[in-house]
């Protein structure tokens, strides 16, 4: 086998491995997820998409030990240079913060600084820890301006850990 053929073969092999790795990490197609308002005073997003394991249903199925891509599309009502992200399990009387979350969305999850009335995409990789208990959970997700503590966007949705 010629050296050039060997290099071409290796290049094809590396590309196939990368494609296979990408296919397994994005095993599920993103789908639009229903969400609700947090409070009447907190801004809502325009849309939310998650790589759910199920194609239909009111709760987005997420797999234990998996990573699911979340995208929230919103229009900020004011400018902000420093934003905090917080996701928590939510019921009527208690919010329990999800473990091991990245709370700094300006580190590559969205364009910062935020510009008032500019369509913004927030992209997040949500790790579903293998120790989580299976079940349907109400979830609340807030992006908040760190300087003023004003909400940038907030939404509630249902997630089913399977």
Automatic annotation (TrEMBL):
Keywords linked to the UniProt accession: Signal
Domain of life: Eukaryota
Protein name in the entry: MD-2-related lipid-recognition domain-containing protein
Every MD-2-related lipid-recognition domain range: 33-160
Presence of the UniProt keyword Signal in the record: yes
Database matches in InterPro entries: Ig_E-set, ML_dom
Signal peptide residues on this chain, from the entry's feature table: 1-25
